[in-house]
Amino acid sequence: MLFTILLFIITLLYIAVLELSKNILLGWCIAIVTAVGLFVGRRLLMKKNLWTRKIAAFCWGALVLVFVVNYVVTAPPYKNVPAVDIKNPRATEVVHVEQGDLTGVYNAEESVKVYAGIPYAAPPVGELRFREPQAPKSWDGVRVCDEFGPMAMQARSNTMYDSLSHILGWHDYRVKFGDEYLEPMSEDCLYLNVFAPEGNYEEPLPVLFYIHGGSLSTGQSSYTEYRGEDLAKRGVIVVNFAYRLNVFGYYAADDLKVESANGTTGNYGLLDQIAALQWVHDNIAAFGGNPNQITIAGESAGASSVNAICVSPLSKELFQYAIADSSGIVAKKPFHTFRSYEDATAQGDVVREEFGVKSSAELRSISAEELLQTLSNQSAMTVDCYAIVEQPYLTYEKGENHEKALLNGFNAKEADAFLLATEATRDNYVELLAEDLGEEAEAMAEVVPWDSPERDQKFIVDAGGEAKGALNTAYSAIWFSYSHYVWNNYLIDQGVPCYEYYFTKTNNSLSNYHAGELPYAYGNLWRHPGLYDEEDYQLSDVMQQYWVNFVKTGNPNGEGLPEWKDRAKDQSQLLQLDTNIQMVDDPNEALYQVIDQYQAKQ
Questions:
Q1: Residue 228: is its pLDDT beyond 60?
Q2: What is the CATH number of domain 95-154+184-402?
Q3: Buried-most residue among 34, 92, 228, 375 (CB within 10 A)?
């Protein structure tokens, strides 16, 4: 009996490992057949009195060996993510773009057409590594665009670890058949996706151009949280895309600046974004879109990228409005995703030293997988005097930024997930604040004392340390919401409409942590059954309509929606997005005054 129970438990745990690792179903079959074979074999040997400890040890060893080999042999294959969640979707009509003809696929209810994996630039491989994006190549025949392109090169966790994070963190893991594969990763990643509503429209539709986040180091356009099917149903076209990340997108070196006809280096990922925007401007009419009514949008590093595009001379006249969630680079000294040229090239020196080369050209002969292992910091844009010609705040002071209206905001608990491993106590609290605020740490500790209660106690994750709640509150303002305070103030001075939100809604998934607002704003709550309730769907419906109204008019307000007042010199309230939607005071006003003091000394 003990043998049978042990065999059952081991096999069940092994199948769980196969599931979490996304091994193909053949692995399950082999595991079950092996276990059943061992069970039956033991019974037969016992009947003949041939079952001994030596044979038992041999059988257990054989079982382990089969399970190990099976795990390797049935490892998940790499396969592009399908554009829609149904099998054998109906193909769309042929669309003609500058490079050739293509087709997409319809979603399940055939209300939206999805064109996935459209190349917007040439593959940045070989001699094109560390160069500005080049024009995409044309193709013959009709290109079938029914799968998302590969994700950009990036560090990614073990598949089992990723599955566990979705169980313990996002709480959205589901056992389902058909997901036994891994998304491919490649330097050849410059592809975009178009989500367009079905139907005949009297006028071209406005366009939302979305830039994914991920600290300029991770992320992929296939991610469910910002797919555009639901927003498209409301009468806009949504575009998202991949761009070069980490060392491939933000490595900087003087020899590359000399090599470049445009004298640029260090902003290849940003240049990819602008190339994608240019492609959309030039080709979106073929999908029913209006090239003169484009809104750029992004979250986290994507919002920082939106901010960069707003100041880039290369993007002038390519878009009208901007949406930015939880980041920006307009502070005098941005706290992340932006660095000086000297810092950028210093990190470039680290890369060459790591790989024992003297020139950037030599780095092009190193495999992408090997180059990805660099320990240098490559997660920030820089002033390259081409894509970004000066510190972004200087462009705003001159009023030479491009956005004609801004929708932006932040969540209640932006920094918490980034500080999980940080132990904060009464004794080290000021020291931790000083890492980013220097001499103003003491002033911040007076505004947010070490024993301040954390906002929204319901979803505290105890990572150790009695001052953790206060540190989370301070750094949510320092790293994330302060940039919106500065951004809005510049636009108020310029007379540009700006609307700021404060997302506080709790739920059973990401709640109001960093990125928690995304599935609400882009209409993807339905992809996570059981995690959101009716109140969440009601809020999502309102947020989607705010976003769509803004894309259409530069103003989120509309019939049936709570009034969202724009920021002004005499109006500093934010729109709280929660079960009750209302204008509220910014909870971080006092914190911003301290950060202002720090910034003034930079």
A1: yes
A2: 3.40.50.1820
A3: 228
